[in-house]
Amino acid sequence: MSNQLKNDRFLRALLRQPVDMTPVWMMRQAGRYLPEYRATREKAGDFITLCQTPELACEVTLQPLARYPLDAAILFSDILTIPDAMGLGLELIESVGPRFKKPVGSKAEIENLPMPDPEDDLGYVMDAVRLIRKELDNSVPLIGFAGSPWTLATYMIEGGSSRDFSKIKTLLYSEPETLHLLLGHVATAVANYLNGQIHAGAQAIMIFDTWGGALSGPAYREFSLAYMQQIQDKLDREYEGDRIPIILFSKGAGLWIEDIAATGCDAMGIDWSQDLGEVRAKVGANVALQGNMDPAVLRASKAAIRSEVGRILASYGEGSGHVFNLGHGITPDIDPKHAGVFIDSVHELSKPYHTH
Known about the structure:
Layout: H1 9-14, H2 35-44, H3 47-52, H4 54-67, E1 73-74, H5 81-88, E2 90-93, E3 97-100, H6 107-111, H7 123-136, E4 142-147, H8 149-158, H9 166-174, H10 176-200, E5 204-209, H11 217-234, E6 238-239, E7 242-243, E8 246-250, H12 257-261, E9 267-269, H13 276-283, E10 288-293, H14 302-316, E11 322-326, H15 336-350
Parallel strand pairs: 1-4, 4-5, 5-8, 8-9, 9-10, 10-11
Antiparallel strand pairs: 2-3, 6-7
């Protein structure tokens, strides 16, 4: 229960309730920039084993919290767990990225996709959530997450990462009903999966729409946002007496900020291409904002990091409703000390914005 949390600043900010300072966490905070993460990954042998072993997923989830005063933990997992559980055969190839042995493309292949059971086919994720909650011992909240249906569909159809999304966009414009069939199936799977995470102990949910920005405006609304809306409508927004905030993050979707806010999400992730103050002025007090420092700033001097944190805090302005984060994930080349400067600067410099 969040009312037992020693630090509930993150959840309070998402619900636009008063906080003493701006909460902060980092996308990919458990990752290759940390030597302790690299050691655990080596012990696991490969990334997929690391994800699928609850004890190791728990270990790496907690590593950044042992090092930094972060305001939230995020489940260590991967967005491609769902298509993998549908039998597409996930492989992670070093320096290439994720690949599926059996991508889908035809209507028949899509109709034959199974519906993964969260506690059965994805039980290793639920076990990790339960274990992390136990180990966190109510110190900070735990974020659960999934990829958006559009983003997952890009990997399922392209067979891996893509520059131009040629296969899925061909399908979108030539056989839209076939793509809708896939997106509807994936949306149901994602909703089931996220509700499974909530029941296992996730206290906030984030949906990563990494490739939403690759679409035109009308296509974004029809093929990405509509399915994130479907998921939101199926999620348990309250569990065991606690409100479960939902964060939607569409990278590169700055033009459609008002549409995203209108879904009824509690918060929006904002990438670094937008000004937080301008976004706040557009969406008003309806929704909290999460973001949005360019991760590249962490390569700069400690003074430069501190200065950029100050600029973003000033842009958002006074009051609650801001969760400080990067505009995308922290990259493997970052000095862990620089991440520490970033986190400490957010806490220290944000206090004057929360005097009440």
